[in-house]
């Protein structure tokens, strides 16, 4: 990868896995454009020496505009990580159509809009890596998470479809499939266990490795996927879930 293409864009990085990823990529010398709906992205960007852009990824037109601005100001780009997502809980009897719409908007449509910007930008750079954050919930029927699990399965399907269509452009597309990660994202899910501490007490029954993941360890793998270490891997759904899928 040449120096000019050592630019990376992350969508969904004011907290959690994406924020850790921004820190890792910055420490590794990447130039960064960071997009998020939350003001906290400015703090992450300041620490990473990056540019920050506020955008609601649920608004496709606003997202397309923000991506165009960010990619234009970044200059060359070699890696794009669409990490945004939403989780709504429930069965088909307890979840609302609005819950499905929210998951669709952030777990599939936003990635599609990112890919519409990413493919021409990465092709112009002579190739690169596009990473979509999915979930291990997209690979098994996660109980009482019908809206989340179904849309994360669609994220994985889309990563494979994009990989197939754009391998000839030297664009690699992969899906990152974490299991339980210790981030604010899980607050709604933990409430059904009575809170984070009560959930953690149940983890040995749920995760064979016996712990949930730290955001930085998941981000570390994602950042390796974005770079040249995995130059021959495309269309892959990489699972980091402490063995949860084995149960
Ligand atoms: N935490 C987990 O256990 C877990 C497990 C599997 C997959 N994931 C996936 O990892 C990704 C990151 O999650 P996380 O755990 O780091 O959560 P997080 O809540 O810490 O981070 C999500 C980021 O996305 C941003 N965001 C949310 N809605 C947005 C919107 N409409 N527009 C722009 N930005 C928006 C948030 O502000 C935040 O910075 C998500 O796609 C999630 O589905 C998380």
Description:
The structure is a single chain. This protein has helices spanning 16-27, 40-48, 60-74, 97-124, 146-166, 187-191, 196-206, 215-226; strands spanning 7-11, 31-36, 51-54, 79-82, 128-133, 171-178, 237-240. The protein has 247 residues and is α/β, with parallel strands linked by helices. It has a single domain (7-246), classed as NAD(P)-binding Rossmann-like Domain (Rossmann fold), CATH 3.40.50.720. Helix 1 packs parallel to helix 2 (40-48), helix 1 packs across helix 8 and helix 3 (60-74) runs parallel beside helix 4. The relative contact order is 0.15. The mean pLDDT is 96. Residues 12-18, 36-38, 55-58, 83-85, 106, 133, 135, 178, 180-181, 183-186, 215 line the site of nicotinamide-adenine-dinucleotide.
Name the ligand types.
nicotinamide-adenine-dinucleotide
Q: What topology, given as strand order, has the largest sheet?
A: 3-2-1-4-5-6-7
CATH topology: the name is: Rossmann fold
Helix percent band = 40-55%
User: Which structural class is indicated by helix and strand composition?
Assistant: alpha/beta
CATH homologous superfamily designation:
NAD(P)-binding Rossmann-like Domain
The domain count comes to: 1
The string of secondary-structure elements, in order, is EHEHEHEHEHEHHHE
The CATH class is identified as Alpha Beta
CATH architecture: 3-Layer(aba) Sandwich
Number of helices: 8
Main β-sheet: number of strands, strand sense, barrel status?
7 strands, parallel
Rounded radius of gyration (Å): 17 Å
Task: Kindly state the number of beta strands.
Answer: 7
Task: Give the strand content.
Answer: 5-15%
General form: globular
